[in-house]
Amino acid sequence: MAEKEKNDGISEIQEAISKTELFIEKNKNTIIYVIVGIVLIACVAFLFNKYYIQPRNTDAQNQMLKGQEYFEADMFKEALNGDGKDFIGFAEIADEYSLTKSGNAANAYAAICNYKLGKYAEAIEFGKEFDGNDDINLSVVINGLIGDSYVNLNQYSDAHKYFAKAYETNNEAFAALYLKKDGEVYEAEKNFDKAIELYNKIKNEYPQSGEAQDIEKYIERATLSK
Fold this sequence. Notes:
CATH architecture of the domain at 135-226: Alpha Horseshoe
Largest sheet: none
Shape: globular
Mean pLDDT: 83
Structural class: mainly alpha
Radius of gyration: 28 Å
Number of strands: 0
Helix content: over 70%
Low-confidence stretches: 1-10
Oligomer: single chain
């Protein structure tokens, strides 16, 4: 019985191999074309990255250095729009070098500059263009900034969404800050139960944060307002 099962197993394997060989024989031209296509795509991607993306990223990095000087000096208009001389501005870098890491970072800088200049809709636009996969901390900050921008535009439901994106990462450095901001927006909407829920989350999950130090005052205020 065992010998029969063994022979049956061998027969099944041989049959499967035969079917595979037959399939390959019938479709060998298609298979060759697919393989050649994959190789060509990989080569094009490599060459595109080496001879186009990398040089442009270097150009963008050189532009970013001047922008960062303006940014650190709180010269947000020049940082955003350029100085009319040798710096084109973060907004232009984000557009012209959009496929590079530096171009992506310029979106974040442009979002912050616009926010500082009181241009909240533009801050939201650049903030949403920023891809935060390479820098989780900066991603949290930009989501929080988008939330702040929506608050300034009195668009509270959108503000809640982006504050939640900021604190749901459970980032120790920033989560309590955006929980508190979101709680304050809920208070402004007179949704005191939700505000208390978020304040208690700060108290229980981030007791060492600066926001936790006076959070009892916020809980009491929201409770008395119900």
